[in-house]
Amino acid sequence: MRMLARLPARLRRALPVAVAVVVAVTGAVVWVAWPDSPAYTTEDATVTVRSGPNGDEPVDLDTTLYLPADADGPVPAVLMPHGFGGTKQSVAADAKDLAELGYAVLAYTARGFGRSGGQVHLDNPDYEVRDAQRLLDWLAARPEVSKDASNDPKVGVVGGSYGGALALLLAAQDQRVDAIVPMITWNDLSRSFLPQSTGSPEVDGVFKKGWAGYFFSGTQGGDPTCGRFAPDICQAYLGMATTGRATAEAVELLRRSSPAPVLDRIKAPTLLIQGEADSLFPLSEADANAKGIAAAGTPVRVAWFTGGHDGGTGPASDRDRVRFLTAQWLDHYVKGEGDAPSNSFTWSRVAGFNALDRGLVTNGFSVDEYPGLRGTDMREVKVAGPPQIIANPPGGNPAAISTVPGVGALGAAASVAGVAMDLPGQHTHFVSEPLAEAIDVAGAPTVSIRVASPTGEAVVFVKLYDVDPNGTETLPSGLIAPVRLTGLPATIDQAQPVTVTLPAIVRRVEAGHTLRVTVATSDQGYATPAEPNVYTVALGGGALTLPTIAGAEPIATTAALWRWVLAALLAAIALGLVVVVLIARRRHRRTDISVHEEYADTPLVVDHLRKEYADGFVAVSDVHFTVERGQVVGLLGPNGAGKTTTLRVLMGLTQPSGGEIFVFGHRLVPGSPVLSRLGALVEGPGFLPHLNGIDNLKAYWQATGRPLADAHFDEAVEIAGLGDSIHRKVRKYSHGMKQRLAIAQAMLGLPELLVLDEPTDGLDPPQIAEMRRVLKRYATDGRAVLVSSHLLAEVEQTCTHAVVVNKGEIVASGPVDEIVGDSPTVQFDVTDVDAAEAVLDGLAGVRSVAWDGNGGLVVDIDGSPRSEVVAELVRAGVGVNRVVPRRRLEDAFLALVGSETRGSGDR
Q1: Is the dihedral of CA 835, 841, 844, 846 positive or negative?
Q2: Dihedral angle of Cα 250, 88, 405, 192, to the nearest 10 degrees
Q3: By C-alpha distance, which of 750, 744, 732 is closest to 771?
Q4: In contact, 778 and 724? CB cutoff 8 Å
Q5: pLDDT tens, position by position, 717-767
Q6: Which CATH superfamily is domain 377-547 in?
Q7: Residue of 27, 418, 576, 777 with fewest CB within 10 Å of its CB?
Q8: Which CATH architecture is the domain 40-191+257-367 placed in?
Q9: CA 654 to CA 649: how far, in whole Å?
Q10: pTM, entire model
């Protein structure tokens, strides 16, 4: 306290804010910033348990127990099952995280997978669930695990997908479970694999053959057809895969492995986390679980995130939110620490790209109570179109594409752009007028259709596309609604309306976009009738209903203050003081709105820049140069010379230790308005492959928070030389095209100063030549370019001026021609190479003569006047067409900096 009293009053007042900022930032990254040295110990063991209908069938399970290293007594436990096809290693990272939070974590490989014995019964209560019960017995016998009672460990269960259903079923079957966190899992396995979007029984559902086949490829060994699946599961799968239909017995078998029939038995508080990009277990599965558990009076909370089986773990902000919610839930309900978590509902949506690293950015939202899939409000959008005829292809081939099972990274992109493809003649659509205002959809849309079929039966797939004004269509997360209809009339005028519930989505549909309801006859992920057929499809009503959620509050990143970071309070205070000093410095600089009149019309002035790091390393000791309008300036230097540091200071990514940078006379500080006059490319190109070029540019520009009207799309595309390629999907771009798209992105505001770091990196010679033309074209109309490159020959041909940095200091700057200077080596283009070589070999002032490979000679004249050499050649009857000095920028560069380097990095 005495130390704090001695601080200046301004710092004392700012200290609480600084500490809060540091704690918030720490909380946001704590799962990746935990100590490098393991804070846990591990113990591998093969645990034999007895399960089966009578509880007498032994099976060996491969386990690892993670124990907190600093525990001073028994601690609560977490049982951690894995997803389908995985092993205990699949959850090792999460197990370590929870162990470091003070839990004894038992990760294990389920029966039928990895080194564990037994067969796969799909989370059957008699097998996988009883296996987990015996593991609870094993935990209860461990002295390191705290107990609620004899043979009753304090324990939570955390699992995703296959492991998530296990958590639900185990909690229903064993009341010793204190809390569960099921993620991206199912409610009714029969509905998941036999979806029917009209509410008809699952036996009439459309078989999800793509995901089912992916599951049955997830085991090895055992039966060559079904791997390590139990015989009853194998036979049920073979029947559905062969006929495309389910029997009542197959549906009952799948329901036995489903939480749906036993939700009323779950007394353990439940946090349900479900993915929005999930064509396997969509949001409707978590919705059904939430309603069933809440009906029994059990505390339940729902959270949606942008990942899923098609979207992976989602962006970092989503991962942090999910981890925070999980730890908060376990801390209260298993550890008994902290206030009871609220039952608010949280969700997120992809908002665009990070302006710095081009990673996906998500916006999080919350409301006080879970509204379900119908939202709190409903918007109606009129769609229209005449009845249309569509064909079902024989054998279901060729088929449309919605999603591709098991391609997480591709699915992540699909969550933004979609990977859908419909086939001509096999689909029809009904379209809205352009929206007058944006709609934030959060839930399951509905639409009514009518179908006629000469056979009285039809299988169709209903989809909702978001179509932008340029015609680019997006099928959110690749989600579709399968429908099997029976008892249909042969003519459309007799067909009755059927309400189709589309998959729940989270998406902002922008003003000016249209919505398109597509009805298709095929999809590669589903089994369709093998016989060819023709259906007539019409709207059953003119309105598409879109659920929205009113009163949503944005989730601030600083809200993720995890309780355990308070243990780092002293370190946070120390860091907080540093933050206060930096804030004070920034405020001081930002209050300076004056313009240095001498530099007011100069794009860039770097005035005696210095950057020294905390470890004493001086990356830049004294760098000063100017970039004028119309110039293309090359920033050169060996590795470690200080180029990258200079660019980082220029972009406001780090503060200088001394000196100033002026952009058009304005002192440059982070957040300065003058930065809008500067564009930059400081990393390699990174775009969403399933958006076309122009949509990538629009998404980036929107992520910067600036109006679309302020972007110069046409001009940037023209300067970058992209042409019609701007409307192609980026996945079809070459590396050079992506680099040019990145250049266009930096040019969108037509900044008066363009800063590029290695723009030709990875390009082939023709692409480099094109990039050279792009940069020269840009440095017109009073604009300027600063380019850092290690390709000296390209700098020599592209740049008007160069700045050479070595060991943090300027060693040369000025026009490229002046830096290159005169040369003792000259190239002669002559009419008779052999005769010229004979003449030159006989001259006393010539040290060497060599062919240049192009019909000329390279001659080292050792200071002799060129005119005398030319005269000797002419006297000998040799015509001299051209005399060119051979000194290159590379020669000058090596003369200036020598051959030494500082390693492969450049600070």
Answers
A1: positive
A2: 30
A3: 744
A4: no
A5: 887 788 888 999 888 888 778 888 888 888 888 888 888 888 777 667 777
A6: Galactose-binding domain-like (2.60.120.260)
A7: 777
A8: 3-Layer(aba) Sandwich (3.40)
A9: 5
A10: 0.61
